[in-house]
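#structure-requests
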Amino acid sequence: MRFRKVVAVAFAVCLAAPLASAQDTETYSFSTYYRCNQATETRADEIYKETVEPLIQKQVEAGRLRVHGWARHWVGGEWRRLEYLVATDLAALVDAREAIIEELIGTHLKAANEFSSICPSHDDYIWSSVASSQAPGEVAQDLSNVIMATYFQCDSREKEADAIMKTAFAPVLSAHVKEGKIAAWIWLEHLAGGKYRRLLVFDGADHKSILEYWNTLDQALQDAQPELARRFTDICHSHTDYVWDIGTE
């Protein structure tokens, strides 16, 4: 499968709950990936924590969002910060995001402008869950400190890649959750956004353990399903990885 040829990961909706190879109830994530000035990006963290997060929390309390979070680049590509909003209803997710932006611009314009000066560009993606180690319809409230996600570019056979993930790779990944090698995993499909079509995310205790696991995952999947692993790599032919630290500090 050659998962290890690029090092740069990205994203979050990680979970920790009973095992399931697929979900009957979808979750949706609106993920915004920011390009920021590295010299001042910690100020963006402060603005998020002081100004943006309270607005997001209002949407959680209103029942539109289930989970939200902020993540900081540890290793990877050009994205420096990640904001994610998670819901089990797509319409509610869109409504929540629009309400957050409206209130931010309406009552915190100075902070919004300062944030934009630090992080002047971004990419938006909407992801939908396909399979994970969580129970159907459940979304965990707490994440591990570190997450790793791999973004895949795939061809028109991407639904076949989903089937391979659910039937061949999910049992391996879920066994690794049981063994404590990772805390949780999730596989997501692209609904809107840029060039990446699929996303694998898993979380762990720290940078060292998550990278050590990543270094062995490729071989474990090839050993379990060699033909399907080759087929998967043919369909999802390139990828980019990031490792993110969860939170503002």
